[in-house]
Write a structure and sequence with these properties.
Blueprint: E1 10-12, E2 39-42, E3 46-49, E4 53-55, E5 66-72, E6 80-86, E7 91-97, E8 100-108, E9 114-120, E10 125-131, E11 137-140, E12 144-150, E13 155-157, E14 174-179, E15 185-190, E16 198-199, E17 216-219, E18 222-224, E19 236-240, E20 243-247, E21 253-256, E22 278-281, E23 288-291, E24 298-301, E25 305-313, E26 320-328, E27 340-343, E28 346-350, E29 356-361, E30 368-372, H1 378-383, E31 385-394, E32 397-403, E33 413-418, E34 423-424, E35 434-438, E36 441-445, E37 452-455, E38 461-463, E39 472-477, E40 490-491, E41 494-501, E42 506-513, E43 518-525, E44 547-550, E45 553-556, H2 557-560, E46 563-570, E47 579-587, E48 592-599, E49 602-603
Parallel strand pairs: 4-38
Antiparallel strand pairs: 1-48, 2-3, 3-48, 4-37, 5-6, 6-7, 7-8, 9-10, 10-11, 11-18, 12-13, 12-17, 13-16, 14-15, 14-17, 19-20, 20-21, 21-22, 23-24, 24-25, 25-26, 27-28, 28-29, 29-30, 31-32, 32-33, 33-34, 35-36, 36-37, 39-47, 40-49, 41-46, 41-48, 42-43, 42-47, 44-45
Length: 614
C-alpha cells in the first residue's frame, strides 16, 4: 500500500444511534438514518446485529394474538409469567408453570386483561386483580402446586410445603383446578387443610379421573360480579393507598373502592370519611394511570390531560377529602393503559401526539413537567401508530412496542431508548404487544399469534427448542456525507474497515453515490484469513479483550466466537458530491461488530463544476 494512498482518511469510529428527524444530508457522521433496522450499539462504541429470540413453551401457529400479560412478582413465592388471548369463542388466561403454558381460565369474555396488585389484609398476601372490560373483577392468589394423591374429598400436594405456604387461599369461597391425564381441567372447591399438605372438604371426587403424580394444580380465580355496578365496564384498574380504582375507557366517571376491600364500592358519606369510597369526574375518558415515583399522588391520564390526585385530611383527621388538579397537555397524555410505565424517578409514556415523554421533576422548575425523549426520531414517530403501543423498561433501556405505520393491525416494531447514552437504537422488526422483565430476562408477547418470546437470545428469530429460527435482516445506513466539501467533486479508492466477525457470517458493505446514481459493494466472509485473525494454538483472536454488552448481557470475546478483522478494500474510483455507506447482513447465526470504517476521500483533479442552475 503506497504511503500517499493512506493520507487524509476520514474515519468513523463513534456511532451515535438512530435518528430520523433532520434531512439525511445534515445528520452527524456516525448516525444511522431511515432504512436502518435490527442493529444495536455494542458497548456504546461499535455497531452490530441485534440478538434474536426463542419461543417460550414452544411455537404456536394459532392466530390468536396475545392481548394481555406480563410478569407478576407476588409478595411470596416465585415470579409468575402470564398471558391472555381470545380464541374466537372465549377469553383464555394462561400461566407459565413447570416449563409449559397452563390454562388458568378458559371461560372469559374477550381475553384483553389488564391487572394490578392489591394487598389482601385477610389473607395477608397480595392478589393479582384482573379485569377485561366487563362488570367482573377477578382476583388470583398466584397459588400453584403439583398433584400427589386424592381421596373422595381430599387432595394432597407433592412436597413438604403446606398449601398455605404456597399461597392457597384460606378464607371465603375458594377453589382450584387440577389437570387430568387427558388434558381436561377438573374444577373443585375446598373448605380446609391449608395449614397442611392435604386439602379437605374437596367438592369433587378426583379419584374418578386418571391424574398422574406431578400434574399441575392451580388456584382458581375468585370472581366478584357486578362491581362497582352491574353496568360497569372495567377496562383497566389501578391501586393507590389500598383503594382499587376502576377505569372505563368510555366513561369520564372513575370509581374507587373503600380502603382495604377491593370489592366494596359503597357510596361515601358527605363529607367523606377516611377510608370511604371515591367518585371522580374528569373532563375526558381515561387512558392510563400511574403512581408518582414518590408515592405522594396518583396521576390519571387522558389524551389531553393528566390529573394529579391526592388525599386531603381535615385538621382533626376525622374527615378526608381529595384534590384533583388537571394539567392541559394537547395530545400529551398516554395513548393507552400499556403505554405508561415507571422508571426510577420518572413516569414514561407514549403519547397520542405521538411522542415518548418523561413525566417528573425538572431542575429549577416547580411541579411535575413533561419532557420529550423522541425528538431525534420525530419523523419515525409521526409515521407510527400508537393506539396499542406499550412502554417497558429493562436494564437502563426503554423498550417501546409500536406499529411502524397504520398499515399494520398490531405492533410490529420495537424501539429502544438507551437512557444512559441518550440515543435510540435502530428499529427492531419484531412483533410485540409489550416487553417485560421476568426473573432478570427480557420477554415479549406476540400480538398476532399465540406466542411468547424470550428476547436477546442467540442470533436467529424464533428458535424453537434445538431448531434455529429465521434469519435476522440487519441494516445500518449512514447519513449522506459531503465530507465538508459541498462544492467539490470528490473520489476515493480505499476503504478501511475493522471489527469482529464469526466464521459463519457474511457481511456486505455498500457505497452509494449521489442518492442512488451508482452503488458499489463488497462482501466480507468470516473465513477470510487475509484480514481475519484466526486462532493459533493459544488463540490469537480470542485473547481477553473485555466483555460485550448487548441489551444488558455481558459476554467475553471467547464466548461470542467473534474473531478480529481489519484491512483495506480497494474500490474503483468514481467522482461524487455526496456518499452514503451501509453495512448489512441477513442470515441465521450471523454475528458481527463494526469498530471503524474510513475512506481516503480527496478532491478530484477535475476543475469543472456542474452545479450551475443557469
Amino acid at each position: 500500500m503506497r504511503e500517499d494512498s493512506l493520507k487524509a482518511f476520514t474515519i468513523t469510529d463513534s456511532f451515535l444511534g438512530f435518528k430520523d428527524k433532520r434531512d439525511v444530508t445534515k445528520e452527524t457522521r456516525g448516525v444511522a438514518v431511515d432504512g436502518s433496522q435490527n442493529c444495536i450499539i455494542v458497548d456504546g462504541e461499535k455497531i452490530g446485529v441485534r440478538p434474536g429470540f426463542e419461543y417460550v413453551g414452544g411455537r404456536s401457529t394459532d392466530r390468536y394474538g396475545i392481548q394481555g400479560g406480563g410478569s407478576w412478582k407476588p409478595s411470596s413465592g416465585d415470579q409468575i409469567m402470564w398471558r391472555s388471548y381470545f380464541n374466537d369463542t372465549n377469553g383464555i388466561i394462561e400461566v407459565y408453570f413447570d416449563d409449559a403454558w397452563e390454562t388458568l381460565d378458559e371461560g372469559m369474555d374477550n381475553g384483553k386483561f389488564r391487572t394490578t396488585t392489591y394487598w389482601d389484609t385477610t389473607e395477608s398476601i397480595d392478589l393479582l386483580i384482573m379485569v377485561e372490560g366487563t362488570a367482573d373483577i377477578m382476583a388470583w392468589s398466584g397459588a400453584t402446586a403439583t398433584f400427589a394423591s386424592a381421596t373422595a374429598n381430599t387432595l394432597t400436594l407433592e412436597g413438604t410445603d403446606t398449601w398455605g405456604e404456597k399461597r392457597w387461599l384460606g378464607a371465603g369461597t375458594r377453589g382450584g383446578r387440577v389437570k387430568d391425564d387427558t388434558g381436561v381441567w377438573r374444577e373443585f372447591e375446598y373448605t380446609g387443610g391449608e395449614g397442611t399438605t392435604t386439602l379437605t372438604g374437596v367438592t369433587v371426587d378426583l379419584t374418578a379421573f386418571v391424574i398422574t403424580a406431578g400434574n399441575p394444580i392451580l388456584q382458581s380465580l375468585r370472581v366478584t360480579a357486578d362491581t362497582p355496578s352491574a353496568t360497569a365496564k372495567n377496562n383497566f384498574v389501578g391501586v393507590y393507598k389500598q383503594h382499587l380504582f376502576c377505569f372505563n375507557e368510555e366513561n369520564r366517571i372513575i370509581l374507587a373502592s373503600i380502603l382495604n376491600d377491593y370489592t366494596d364500592f359503597t357510596a361515601a358519606s358527605s363529607p367523606r370519611l377516611p377510608g370511604e369510597s371515591i367518585s371522580l369526574t374528569i373532563d375526558e375518558v381515561p387512558t392510563a394511570w400511574a403512581v408518582a415515583p414518590t408515592g405522594s399522588s396518583l396521576y390519571i391520564q387522558t389524551l389531553n390531560y393528566y390529573y394529579q390526585f391526592t388525599f386531603a385530611d381535615s385538621a382533626d383527621l376525622t374527615k378526608q377529602g381529595y384534590d384533583l388538579e388537571p394539567t392541559y397537555m394537547p395530545n400529551g397524555g398516554a395513548s393507552n393503559n400499556l403505554a405508561i410505565s415507571n422508571i426510577k424517578n420518572y413516569i414514561t409514556m407514549i403519547t397520542s401526539e405521538p411522542t415518548f415523554d418523561t413525566l417528573g421533576n425538572v431542575l429549577n422548575v416547580e411541579g411535575i413537567r413533561s419532557t420529550s425523549l423522541s425528538d431525534d426520531i420525530k419523523k419515525y414517530m409521526d409515521d407510527s401508530e400508537v393506539d396499542e403501543s406499550a412502554a417497558g423498561y429493562y436494564k437502563n433501556n426503554s423498550y417501546l412496542s409500536i406499529k411502524s405505520s397504520d398499515d399494520f393491525g398490531s405492533n410490529n416494531n420495537i424501539l429502544i431508548r438507551n437512557l444512559q447514552k441518550n440515543y435510540w437504537e435502530t428499529p427492531w422488526t419484531l412483533p410485540s404487544l409489550l416487553t417485560f422483565e421476568h426473573n432478570g430476562v427480557l420477554y415479549a408477547h406476540d400480538p398476532s399469534q399465540k406466542n411468547t418470546f424470550k428476547l436477546l437470545q442467540g442470533y436467529s428469530d424464533g428458535k424453537n427448542g434445538i431448531v434455529e429460527g429465521a434469519p435476522i435482516s440487519a441494516k445500518w445506513f449512514s447519513s449522506w456525507d459531503n465530507f465538508d466539501l459541498p462544492f467539490n467533486q470528490k473520489e476515493f479508492d480505499l476503504i478501511w474497515v475493522s471489527g469482529y466477525i464469526t466464521p459463519s457470517t457474511k457481511l456486505r458493505f455498500y457505497v452509494s453515490y449521489d442518492f442512488g446514481a451508482y452503488t458499489q459493494s463488497f462482501e466480507l466472509l468470516g473465513t477470510n484469513e487475509d484480514v481475519i485473525l484466526t486462532p493459533s494454538g493459544g488463540g490469537i483472536g480470542y485473547y481477553s479483550l473485555g466483555s460485550r454488552s448487548l441489551g444488558g448481557r455481558g459476554e467475553t470475546l471467547s464466548e461470542t466466537g467473534l474473531r478480529r478483522f481489519r484491512g483495506f478494500v480497494t474500490i474503483p474510483v468514481r467522482s461524487f458530491y455526496e456518499m452514503q455507506w451501509s453495512v448489512q447482513s441477513n442470515g441465521v447465526n450471523y454475528r458481527w461488530e463494526l469498530c471503524e470504517i474510513g475512506f481516503n476521500v480527496r478532491k478530484t483533479n477535475c476543475q469543472s463544476n456542474n452545479l450551475k442552475f443557469n
